[in-house]
Design a protein that fits this description.
- This protein is 33% helix and 14% strand.
- The protein is α/β, with parallel strands linked by helices.
- Strand 4 (81-85), helix 5 and strand 5 (107-110) form a beta-alpha-beta unit.
- It is globular.
Amino acid sequence: MRKGIATLVAEAEAEIAALAPAEAAALLHDGDTVFVDLRDIRELEREGRIPGARHCPRGMLEFWVDPDSPYHKPYFASGKRFVFFCAAGWRSALATKTAQDMGLEPVCHVSGGFAAWRDAGLPVDPPGRKDGAAGS
């Protein structure tokens, strides 16, 4: 293997903006910021969600961001700031780098992901609650 995941994540993190959970939380109710949860739906159902976050499965990100894709989601063309997160910050680092490379801006991610957010005692909707978190 020429490059492992640790190298890929480190390279991405060298080129993207990262926010500590408390910094990200300060943006939670900012109308010009969209939180994007990249975790698998089973993770959301098991662990809960950041209130108001949009769900975009990591495997669909490029298709939902690209306005020429038949799967494009209009909120990605809103001109707002995007704060990506996953469980631990690895997928979101890679996703943030990919979105940035595609021209989506401004973009950043939550260092340590949902686990760091939850461990910091920040707001979490309990498992099973789905209001407003759909991908569309």
